[in-house]
TrEMBL record:
Taxonomic path: Eukaryota, Metazoa, Ecdysozoa, Arthropoda, Hexapoda
Entries under Gene3D superfamilies matching the protein: Nucleic acid-binding proteins
Keyword Ribosomal protein: yes
Entry's Gene Ontology BP terms: mitochondrial translation
Name by which UniProt lists this protein: 28S ribosomal protein S17, mitochondrial
GO CC annotation, single: mitochondrial small ribosomal subunit
InterPro entries, alphabetized: NA-bd_OB-fold, Ribosomal_uS17m_metazoa
Matches recorded under PANTHER family: 28S RIBOSOMAL PROTEIN S17, MITOCHONDRIAL (PTHR24088), SMALL RIBOSOMAL SUBUNIT PROTEIN US17M (PTHR24088:SF0)
Keywords attached to this entry: Ribonucleoprotein, Ribosomal protein
């Protein structure tokens, strides 16, 4: 009898990307998994979607977050909790050096190259622009409430509608 009552619970940490969700105080996280095919002997990408409790409202759409599974489910669908925002959308940091990265180069290197070859007026200035969140409801609409669209109408292009999978 005692064997059935004791249960060892392992806490698992996962890395995922926050996607639009219609749940209150919860974030929908897309987790990338690699599925092995025995016949082709190669891995294929599979995505799994989980809901994570986000009571602090710390993650936005597009952020890379660290989530942890809960020992007990909060609701029927919420099985994880958001631990930390690893990378906000657009700010990628190299974990080894700690420097910010643009595409495949460090930002410092890009600015040094621009000084050597001449800066353009159209060059993107990373340091002068405000942090993410200052343009909320002007150019950044990730805080808007989204809903699930149940019809496939080509004429209706609502940016706040999410197509069901």
């Amino acid at each position: 009898m005692a064997k059935n009552t004791l249960r060892k619970q392992t806490l698992t940490y996962l890395l995922g990307v926050c996607v639009p969700s219609s749940k209150q105080n919860a974030a929908k996280i897309r987790i990338r998994r690699m599925d092995f095919d025995d016949h082709l002997l190669t891995y294929f990408t599979k995505y799994e979607f989980v809901y994570a409790a986000d009571t602090k409202k710390c993650c936005k759409t597009g952020d890379t977050v660290l989530i942890q599974n809960l020992p007990d489910k909060l609701t029927r669908v919420i099985t994880h909790k958001v631990v930390d925002v690893i990378y906000p959308l657009g700010d990628i940091i190299d974990p080894v050096t700690g420097k910010k990265v643009v595409v495949g180069k460090y930002r410092d290197t890009v600015h040094e190259d621009a000084k050597l070859f001449g800066e353009l007026k159209s060059m993107y200035q990373h340091d002068e622009l405000p942090k993410r969140g200052s343009m909320e409801n002007k150019r950044d609409f990730t805080s808007k409430k989204v809903y699930v669209k149940h019809n496939k109408d080509a004429q209706d292009s609502d940016p706040y509608a999410v197509d069901p999978l």
